[in-house]
Amino acid sequence: MSVLTDLLYGFGVAFQPWNLFSCFIGVLIGTLVGVLPGIGPVGAMSILLPITFGISPVTGIIMLAGIYYGAMYGGSTTSILVNIPGEAASVVTTLDGHQMALKGRAGPALGIAAFGSFIAGTLGLFGLMFMTNALAGVALLFGPTEYFSLMCLGLSLITYLTHGSVLRGLVMAGLGLFLSLIGQDVITGQARFSFGLMGLVDGVGLVPLVMGLFGISEVLLNLEEIGKKREVMRTTFRQLFPTTEDWRKSAKPIGRGTLIGFLLGILPGGGAVISSFVSYAAEKRFSKHPEEFGKGAIEGVAGPESANNAASSSGFIPLFSLGIPANVIMALLLGALMIHGIKPGPLLIMERPEIFWGTVASMYVGNVMLLVLNLPLISLWVQVLKVPYRTLFPLILLFCFIGAYSISTNVFDLYVMFIFGALGYVLRKLSYEPAPLVLAFVLGPLLEKNLRQALILSDGSLSVFVTRPLSAVSLLVAVLLLLTALLPFVQKRRSEVITEED
Fold first, then answer.
1. Domain extents for the chain?
2. Mean pLDDT of the chain
3. Mean pLDDT to the nearest integer, 113-131
4. What distance in Å separates the CA atoms of residue 298 and residue 97, rounded to the nearest whole number?
5. The pTM is what?
């Protein structure tokens, strides 16, 4: 059968009443999970996984998939409005999205996030249909050596995430890498830097760290201005949507973000979080006005939001074609399939076409549902900015409490959140940005694991990183990126020294 015939068959499966209802429930829950900071799609899917045991496999997978890409949509809302990432992949959206909201442009920011997510999600599905087997083969070329070099390339992008001093960005990255080492050794299982605290044996949680650095610190910063009036946009419903100029600026970022997210989403360890960081760095690099980033550039919203939604689509490629989960969420879906006696792999599309094509078709339907659900709510979300901050900040704290506690129901995570909240407040007062820390923290475990695996396989020889072509190219690009960022800084310092001597 042709792809079109297969897709029509998939729509026949997706439009069955129970499947259509489960798709709606999935994207609705996903949106709510994205809006509510901290819980994230992993927590929601873990809680709802037992529900799928009593329903058909295709219905369960459609619902779980809807939660995943629905959370990518909803995660931008609180990032833009109150500077709290609703989901880890939305951390980058806070950099420019919240600045747009402070300038009275929350509506266009939310609008371009919704439209960009829809476009990227839809294009990602085309890639999922036509390129599953080919692109899954590319992922097989990557071993521990290549992944280590790829992670180094990802870390080099930190130089493009900073808006001030490059050295401060590198310091934050170093702190993030150190924090990622806390917990059990990935090879020996021995506890490191836990200082005898049981709560640190499993490491520092990403959610408490993010909630503290962005949520609690934002509350503390705003409390300094609680007596001041906040200017809120006064606009008509039409003005809530992106203008023609906004679309002109966002078209290329959406395209680039879609491509970056799709390609990185296929690779294990890539996923939506790293894709959004890489997309932001790319937009800042390609922009003719990079100084506008971090001050409300709509490109800084369009690119990352498109990237994380494209990555949520392409993550299904290695799952369905090879049975390899590209990230934690795909691992949950793999577990759900195996519980139902279905083994993902090369024969899945042939033996169980209703699973593959039904899920793909439901994602088209789900993307339309999300667009219909989210666009009418833009004016409602913007009203959040009109709530007096003395009323709003207790609600923000409540969301942070729920988000940090709900993942592991561990009170220790609340202490961690407050510690990072105080740290984030001090760092932001000193003009140190938290985004490089978060990226390094996410990449740290992957970097260490692949480094040690590569060294074990090569009997401790470092030459393996430059003798393998893909690894060598990644490291070369990483070095070039660092040099292009550091050379202007060195030249500036040299000029200052010469001026002082004169």
1. 1-140+267-386
2. 78
3. 83
4. 7
5. 0.68
